[in-house]
Amino acid sequence: DGGITQSPKYLFRKEGQNVTLSCEQNLNHDAMYWYRQDPGQGLRLIYYSQIVNDFQKGDIAEGYSVSREKKESFPLTVTSAQKNPTAFYLCASSIQANTEAFFGQGTRLTVV
Amino acid sequence: DQQVKQNSPSLSVQEGRISILNCDYTNSMFDYFLWYKKYPAEGPTFLISISSIKDKNEDGRFTVFLNKSAKHLSLHIVPSQPGDSAVYFCAALGGGSNYKLTFGKGTLLTVNP
Q1: What does the pLDDT look like over A64-98, one tens digit per residue?
Q2: What is the spatial distance between Cα A41 and Cα B103, in angstroms, rounded to a whole number?
Q3: Any CB–CB contact under 8 A between B96 and chain A?
Q4: Does B45 sit within 8 Å of A97, measured CB to CB?
Q5: CB-CB: which of B6, B36, B41 is closest to A108?
Q6: What is the structure's pLDDT at A41?
Q7: CB contact under 8 A, B43 and A97
Q8: SS3 label, residue B83
Q9: Which pLDDT tens digit goes with each residue over A10-27?
Q10: What are phi and psi of A16, to 5 degrees?
């Protein structure tokens, strides 16, 4: 069953702790993305990767880090430097440029 | 600097009528536009797209219109159904990066039975 899998769906962390969100795709897509959704803000791009071992900062990369060691995987680490980490995080992938991106089901991160 | 704007946060229509969702953009380099539908606590799902070389694309009940001179696009849903109730996001590609999707803030559509 092809698709994008984000885990876990809900995640709770204490303030000051780093946390890594998982994103795996078996669609053989080259490009992968991380977005953040906040109420009234739409979707904002954190990082994206066009190809393995390469990634670029999006609009709100501060306090986040990523890696792209495998085509299928694009984990996002929310570091303690991120000032407002509580949000709904969405991972997406696309086969190539100028095509639609497919999204995972999201991870709701709550920092307490 | 918001490059993709959805100025109506919400829209309410009666079942069976037409829903029209609007989107404006400022970056003339955008050359591919998409509409996504999103339910609460779920990822967006792709609905329909349009290339800048076209002015209309139709898929069943969904039609997207593009007016390049006005930098405006709209999504028409006819007839509207209660299951269409969701947040609709307009997104654009291009503008210097063919991989970076830029989203609007979304419009909450409510279709009343």
Answers
A1: 999 999 999 999 999 988 989 999 999 999 987 66
A2: 10
A3: no
A4: no
A5: B41
A6: 80
A7: no
A8: helix
A9: 999 998 899 999 999 999
A10: 95, -10
